[in-house]
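Help needed: design a sequence for this.
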């Protein structure tokens, strides 16, 4: 301390250095006075320490980067997916969060660029045709959105899952509404992958329009052509409203010409 003892002085110096390192560390954490205390009179060893601390910090920073979430709202037509999506966006807006609301451009049933529910709720949205377009929209948004909500997810290409992961990694809350199954009762577009990677899944049901079971049992979209069930080999995408689709339960769902699962099983058993 008084300079009479070399060891004591070395000890003091080490103590001072340690203090300075800690200050630097705190400074780095705060993102402000990063290394200020060390910038003058540092030894090579001190510089290396500073570099090491910086490396540690960026490692910690990567680890603690808060990711967002992916919620998928699925179910047949008329189950309330768009209604639920609009509600989610509405709540986010009340909370003052910036929201980007998108819909598949192919869906022109009620409006070109509104998300609309069958019971009359509407909300301004942006129509997009490919998952790729979503990247540019989010990147060019004047304010980075906290919530990205997408309706009619089934109409997008397979790139939608990757885009949703990218948005979630950036910390956004991503909500995708869409039909999990097509009129054949088979997985629809990118929805199966989205459902697999989702953090939360909301699977909604509607009233079956054939048996009208009050327990709300419809899980499938029934396509009707001229009032009759559409055959299995009709095209997968045929956007329509009440005139060509209704919600049905598994018992009432009809797909003439659908491959018989019994035959498939027999094939698997080698008969
Ligand atoms: P989705 O986006 O899943 O097609 P919407 O949110 O657009 O559903 O519409 C849900 C609304 O549709 C319900 O609130 C109800 O008013 C109406 N609706 C019409 N048919 C049915 C049905 N069979 N079962 C339940 N709701 C129905
Ligand atoms: Mg809808
Ligand atoms: Zn039914």
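Sure. Designed sequence:
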């Amino acid at each position: 301390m008084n300079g009479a003892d070399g060891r004591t002085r070395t000890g003091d110096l080490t103590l001072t250095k340690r203090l300075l390192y800690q200050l630097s560390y705190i400074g780095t954490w705060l993102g402000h006075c990063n290394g200020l205390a060390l910038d003058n009179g540092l030894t090579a060893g001190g510089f290396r320490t500073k570099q090491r601390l910086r490396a540690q910090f960026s490692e910690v920073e990567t680890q603690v980067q808060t990711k967002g979430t992916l919620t998928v709202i699925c179910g047949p037509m008329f189950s309330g997916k768009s209604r639920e999506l609009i509600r989610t966006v509405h709540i986010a807006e009340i909370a003052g969060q910036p929201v980007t609301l998108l819909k598949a451009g192919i869906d022109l049933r009620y409006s070109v660029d509104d998300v609309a529910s069958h019971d009359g709720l509407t909300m301004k949205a942006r129509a997009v045709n490919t998952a790729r377009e979503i990247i540019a929209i989010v990147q060019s948004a004047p304010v980075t959105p906290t919530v990205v909500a997408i309706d009619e997810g089934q109409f997008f290409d397979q790139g939608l899952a990757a885009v949703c992961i990218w948005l979630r990694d950036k910390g956004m809350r991503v909500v995708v509404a869409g039909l999990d199954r097509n009129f054949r009762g088979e997985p629809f577009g990118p929805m199966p992958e989205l459902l697999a990677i989702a953090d939360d899944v909301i699977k909604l049901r509607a009233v079956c329009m054939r048996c009208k079971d009050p327990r709300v049992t419809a899980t499938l979209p029934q396509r009707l052509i001229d009032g009759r069930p559409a055959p299995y080999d009709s095209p997968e995408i045929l956007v329509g409203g009440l005139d060509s689709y209704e919600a049905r339960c598994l018992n009432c769902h009809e797909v003439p010409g659908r491959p018989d699962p019994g035959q498939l099983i027999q094939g698997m058993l080698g008969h």
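The chain has seven helices and eleven strands.
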